[in-house]
Amino acid sequence: MINKRFFKTKDEVEVTFELDAEQVGNSVSIVADFLDWKPTQMKKVVRSKSYKFKTRLPKDSQFEFRYLIDEEKWINDPNADQYRPNGFGEDNSLISTHQ
Question: What pTM was computed for the model?
Fold first, then answer.
Protein backbone atom coordinates (compact mmCIF):
# COMPACT_ATOMS: atom_id res chain seq x y z
CA MET A 1 0.00 0.00 0.00
CA ILE A 2 1.12 3.53 -0.73
CA ASN A 3 -0.53 6.43 1.06
CA LYS A 4 -0.01 10.02 -0.11
CA ARG A 5 -0.90 13.03 1.99
CA PHE A 6 -0.94 16.37 0.16
CA PHE A 7 -0.53 19.63 2.07
CA LYS A 8 -2.26 22.83 0.94
CA THR A 9 0.51 25.12 2.16
CA LYS A 10 3.63 23.06 1.40
CA ASP A 11 5.41 21.99 -1.77
CA GLU A 12 5.85 18.46 -0.51
CA VAL A 13 3.85 15.27 -0.13
CA GLU A 14 4.03 12.87 2.82
CA VAL A 15 4.30 9.36 1.43
CA THR A 16 3.96 6.16 3.44
CA PHE A 17 5.14 2.90 1.87
CA GLU A 18 3.72 -0.23 3.50
CA LEU A 19 4.12 -3.97 2.89
CA ASP A 20 2.27 -6.84 4.56
CA ALA A 21 4.82 -8.53 6.88
CA GLU A 22 3.17 -11.93 6.48
CA GLN A 23 3.79 -11.93 2.72
CA VAL A 24 7.49 -10.98 2.81
CA GLY A 25 10.65 -12.06 4.63
CA ASN A 26 12.29 -11.16 7.92
CA SER A 27 13.65 -7.81 6.77
CA VAL A 28 12.56 -5.27 4.17
CA SER A 29 14.49 -2.31 2.83
CA ILE A 30 13.28 0.34 0.46
CA VAL A 31 15.78 1.27 -2.26
CA ALA A 32 14.94 4.47 -4.12
CA ASP A 33 16.33 7.30 -6.18
CA PHE A 34 15.26 9.74 -3.44
CA LEU A 35 17.54 7.76 -1.07
CA ASP A 36 20.47 7.75 -3.54
CA TRP A 37 19.72 4.05 -4.18
CA LYS A 38 20.99 3.10 -0.71
CA PRO A 39 18.92 0.39 1.01
CA THR A 40 17.02 1.87 3.95
CA GLN A 41 15.48 -0.50 6.47
CA MET A 42 11.70 -0.28 6.80
CA LYS A 43 10.19 -0.29 10.28
CA LYS A 44 8.35 -3.45 11.32
CA VAL A 45 5.02 -2.53 12.89
CA VAL A 46 3.82 -5.48 14.98
CA ARG A 47 0.35 -4.08 15.58
CA SER A 48 -0.49 -3.80 11.88
CA LYS A 49 1.70 -6.76 10.85
CA SER A 50 3.46 -4.64 8.25
CA TYR A 51 6.68 -2.92 7.30
CA LYS A 52 6.46 0.86 6.89
CA PHE A 53 8.59 3.72 5.65
CA LYS A 54 7.41 7.34 5.74
CA THR A 55 9.04 10.29 4.00
CA ARG A 56 8.27 13.65 2.44
CA LEU A 57 8.88 14.14 -1.26
CA PRO A 58 8.66 17.24 -3.47
CA LYS A 59 5.31 17.86 -5.19
CA ASP A 60 4.88 17.42 -8.94
CA SER A 61 7.69 14.87 -9.33
CA GLN A 62 8.20 11.16 -10.02
CA PHE A 63 10.43 8.77 -8.12
CA GLU A 64 11.60 5.21 -8.72
CA PHE A 65 11.91 2.58 -6.01
CA ARG A 66 11.95 -1.14 -5.23
CA TYR A 67 11.86 -3.28 -2.11
CA LEU A 68 14.74 -5.56 -1.10
CA ILE A 69 13.59 -8.59 0.91
CA ASP A 70 16.07 -10.30 3.25
CA GLU A 71 18.91 -8.52 1.40
CA GLU A 72 18.52 -10.81 -1.63
CA LYS A 73 15.12 -10.70 -3.34
CA TRP A 74 13.82 -7.67 -5.26
CA ILE A 75 10.09 -6.96 -5.51
CA ASN A 76 7.97 -4.11 -6.80
CA ASP A 77 4.99 -2.50 -5.14
CA PRO A 78 1.72 -3.73 -6.68
CA ASN A 79 0.21 -0.32 -5.81
CA ALA A 80 2.82 1.74 -7.66
CA ASP A 81 1.52 4.43 -10.00
CA GLN A 82 3.52 2.95 -12.90
CA TYR A 83 6.54 0.79 -13.68
CA ARG A 84 9.66 1.79 -15.60
CA PRO A 85 12.39 -0.48 -17.07
CA ASN A 86 15.52 -0.21 -14.93
CA GLY A 87 18.25 -1.35 -17.32
CA PHE A 88 18.77 -4.65 -15.48
CA GLY A 89 16.05 -6.56 -17.33
CA GLU A 90 13.37 -5.74 -14.74
CA ASP A 91 11.13 -2.82 -13.82
CA ASN A 92 11.24 -0.31 -10.99
CA SER A 93 8.11 0.89 -9.24
CA LEU A 94 7.26 4.52 -9.93
CA ILE A 95 5.47 6.91 -7.59
CA SER A 96 4.10 10.25 -8.71
CA THR A 97 3.56 13.22 -6.40
CA HIS A 98 1.36 15.08 -8.90
CA GLN A 99 -2.00 15.89 -7.40
Answer: 0.94
Residues 86 and 99: their CA atoms lie apart, in Å, by 25
How many domains does one find in the chain? 1
What is the domain-level CATH number for residue 23?
2.60.40.10
pLDDT (tens digit per residue) in 9-62: 999 999 999 999 988 889 999 999 999 999 999 999 988 899 999 999 999 999
Residues 6+ apart with CB under 8 A from 14: 4, 5, 7, 54, 55, 56
Calpha distance 33→65 (Å, rounded): 6
The type of residue at 29 is S
For residue 36, the enclosing domain spans 2-96
CB 77 within 8 A of CB 2: yes
- Residue 48 backbone phi and psi in degrees, to 5: -95, 0
